[in-house]
């Protein structure tokens, strides 16, 4: 059943109006149509599926042109929601600073400065396209869910997280050499694409930025880009990554070794039990061993060896390196746990908003569809924060979407009731709302 545009909730209208400057008037109508349909659609988020969700959304051809040819900039849309995010988070950051200052003990000397950490998290995700032979930008990319290389598009994404809120940055398409040569465009690796937001992002005011990446993005120039900006950085380590560690604390001698051999030589007494945080309450216990070392091709870092169990197999051991050599083990684990937000972003946008449901041909249309799906995610994150404040409990993005859908179905029932009172027949409403 289609939902008439007159039934759109006022909060969603207010959110959409914040981006009106990025579009012309006809383009803005398409933007609202796609935004509402992405939030309410119960089936595949193809263009046909989106038009079957909203009544009065226009024709398929015009919506297709809006995504592939219309003169609007996806970067302007992403910049607009980032400014909105910064404006909303500024008072929350100030409140966190005030709480830290009020909680610190009163003693003589210079007081400890309050610190609010904002995370810049990056990763990539493959959108598998089984029948998309005519789509531009296709390549073979490794898929975690399929556990093999698949044909599709690789989305490189950065996510800003602060004070419990999430803000995705501009999505980027990782194109392989054959695809770039066919389109006569320069080749940019996924490391190039990840380095760009690190160098260009504007940090949230009064926060310290911490970059979180997996082992794939642990390149030397990624670390250099973070250090040049004054950011701390934590990345995964391959098991065979060589590090230079002290032989003993007394003589200060050094030796080179790899992470796998170091982990194999540890005993239970070498590990420290730490709670891995969880959003919904009590977390799980992991075992951590830390050592300050020089990582080859990087710099001095604190290396963490993380085990789920003391007697687990070697392939379950995880290795991380952080430039914050003064961080406690608990603080370092808190940083590592925050990296899961990017995985949750990919899961939520694919399962709830159809990030990988597109059937567009051009890369411009594909990146624009990703951008519109992330705009819908930004709205759901705002609703999640509002519901969490009202209910005083943990709220997921899925909970926020279900609440949005319930509100719109209630508006639809109220609208139908008014139409019947005005003399409309069942057949007339059926022709308007039938998908």
Secondary-structure blueprint:
Blueprint: E1 3-4, H1 10-17, H2 25-40, H3 47-51, E2 54-55, H4 60-68, H5 74-103, E3 117-128, E4 139-143, E5 148-162, E6 165-168, E7 172-174, H6 177-183, H7 190-200, E8 208-213, H8 220-228, E9 232-237, E10 242-246, E11 254-258, H9 259-264, E12 272-278, E13 281-295, E14 300-307, E15 318-322, H10 329-338, H11 340-353, H12 363-391, H13 397-421, H14 426-433
Parallel strand pairs: 1-2, 3-8, 8-9
Antiparallel strand pairs: 3-5, 4-5, 5-6, 5-7, 9-15, 10-11, 10-13, 12-13, 13-14, 14-15
Helix pairs in contact: 2-12, 5-12, 7-8, 12-13
Word description of this protein:
With 435 residues, this protein is an alpha+beta fold. Among the domains are: 3-75 and 350-433, no CATH class; 230-338, no CATH class. Helix content is 43%, strand content 23%. It has 14 helices and 15 strands. It has helices at residues 10-17, 25-40, 47-51, 60-68, 74-103, 177-183, 190-200, 220-228, 259-264, 329-338, 340-353, 363-391, 397-421, 426-433, and strands spanning 3-4, 54-55, 117-128, 139-143, 148-162, 165-168, 172-174, 208-213, 232-237, 242-246, 254-258, 272-278, 281-295, 300-307, 318-322. Strands 3, 4, 5, 6, 7, 8, 9, 10, 11, 12, 13, 14 and 15 form a 13-stranded mixed β-sheet that branches. Strand 8 (208-213), helix 8 and strand 9 (232-237) form a beta-alpha-beta unit. The protein is globular, with a radius of gyration of 25 Å. 34% of the residues are buried. Residues 247-251 have low confidence and may be disordered.
């Amino acid at each position: 059943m289609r939902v008439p545009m007159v039934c759109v909730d006022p909060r969603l209208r207010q959110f959409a109006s914040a981006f009106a400057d990025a579009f012309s008037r006809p383009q803005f109508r398409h933007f609202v149509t796609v935004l509402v349909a992405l939030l309410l659609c119960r089936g595949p988020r193809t263009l046909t599926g989106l038009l079957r969700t909203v009544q009065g959304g226009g024709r398929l051809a015009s919506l297709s042109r809006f995504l592939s040819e219309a003169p609007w900039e996806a970067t302007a849309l992403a910049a607009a929601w980032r400014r909105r995010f910064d404006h909303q988070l500024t008072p929350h950051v100030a409140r966190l600073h005030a709480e830290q200052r009020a909680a610190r003990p009163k003693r003589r000397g210079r007081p400890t400065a309050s610190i609010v950490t904002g995370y810049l998290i990056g990763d990539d995700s493959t959108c598998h396209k089984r029948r998309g032979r005519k789509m531009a930008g296709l390549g073979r990319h490794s898929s975690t869910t399929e556990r093999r290389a698949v044909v599709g598009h690789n989305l490189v994404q950065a996510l800003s997280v602060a004070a419990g809120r999430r803000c995705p940055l501009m999505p980027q398409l990782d194109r392989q050499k054959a695809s770039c040569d066919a389109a006569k465009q320069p080749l940019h690796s996924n490391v190039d694409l990840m380095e760009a937001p690190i160098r260009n992002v504007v940090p949230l005011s009064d926060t310290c930025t911490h970059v979180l990446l997996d082992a794939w993005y642990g390149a030397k120039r990624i670390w250099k880009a973070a250090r040049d900006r004054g950011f701390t950085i934590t990345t995964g380590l391959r098991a065979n990554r060589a590090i230079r560690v002290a032989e003993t604390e007394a003589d200060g001698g050094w030796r080179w070794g790899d992470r796998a051999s170091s982990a194999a030589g540890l005993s239970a007494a070498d590990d420290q039990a730490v709670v891995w945080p969880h959003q919904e309450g009590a977390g799980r216990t992991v075992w951590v061993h830390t050592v300050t070392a020089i990582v080859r091709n990087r710099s001095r870092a604190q290396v963490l060896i993380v085990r789920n169990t003391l007697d687990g197999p070697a392939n379950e051991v995880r290795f991380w390196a952080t430039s914050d050599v003064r961080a406690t083990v608990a603080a370092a684990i808190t940083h590592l746990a925050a990296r899961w937000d990017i995985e949750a972003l990919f899961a939520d946008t694919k399962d709830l908003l159809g990030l990988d449901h597109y059937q567009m041909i051009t890369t411009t249309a594909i990146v624009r569809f990703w951008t519109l799906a992330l705009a819908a995610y930004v709205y759901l994150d705002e609703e999640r924060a509002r519901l969490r404040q009202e209910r005083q409990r943990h709220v997921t993005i899925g909970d926020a979407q279900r609440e949005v859908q319930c509100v719109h179905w209630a508006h639809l029932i109220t609208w139908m009731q008014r139409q019947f009172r005005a003399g409309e027949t069942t057949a007339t409403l059926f022709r308007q709302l039938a998908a």
